[in-house]
Amino acid sequence: MTPERIWLDPGTPLAEVVARRLLxxxxxxxxxxxxxxVVPTLNAGRRLRYALAxxxxxxxxxxxxxxxxxxxxxxxLDVNRAGxxxxxxxxxxxxxVLEKIAIENFSGLFPLPAARRDPAWTLKxxxxxxxxxxxxxxxxxxxxxxxxxxSLPLSEKRRWKDVSALxxxxxxxxxxxxxxxxxxxxxxxxEEAIPPAGIQRVxxxxxxxxxxxxxxxxxx
Length: 220
Known about the structure:
By secondary structure, the protein is mostly helical. About 50% of the residues lie in helices and about 5% in strands. It is built from eight helices and five strands. The chain has helices at about 15-25, 40-60, 85-100, 120-140, 145, 155-175, 180-190, 210-220; strands spanning about 30, 35-40, 65, 70, 200-205. It has a three-stranded parallel beta sheet with strand order 4-2-5. It has a two-stranded parallel sheet with strand order 1-3. Helix 3 (about 85-100) crosses helix 6. The longest helix has 23 residues, at about 155-175. The radius of gyration is 22 Å and the shape is elongated. The protein starts with 13 loop residues before the first helix and ends with a helix. The model has no long low-confidence stretch (mean pLDDT about 85).
């Protein structure tokens, strides 16, 4: 796909100006089923669909839209969700790992043992670790990638090595239950750069700073 940059009128609501730009010069009925439209938020997507339908109706035509998604969602559009852990299952796997580990073996991440490693601590820590992985994944990173960075001080490398080791235990726990991790699936699809079936064009609609993992998938 050849990239084209278009500057839009900042004085007009984004959904309206994007919708008019998409419809301009196209034959009716308007068909965007081969176009992947990437928007900054889910709410922006709803507004854009509404604007497309309204402007098409004003011209006496219908409109067929393809996927309208956020940048990270665009990486896993064709993924079969069966067998992928939902958020509750992911956190349950983290809790299982944190309950079983000898915490003194992870002093890089936990320099001071938890005063009380109770269910509240394991739940909170599991959520934090999963959110950390998700934040890294949006940049196209895994904990192991940071653990191998020579530029980091030793204390930071030890911390990331511990996070990476815990991640391996977490992934193994999911695998033992026949489940895959959604973050790992996201990264794999970004690396493989598999476009959704039938997509011939990608439109970034008001997404000035998409997640690096998305850029990797679009340009690979």
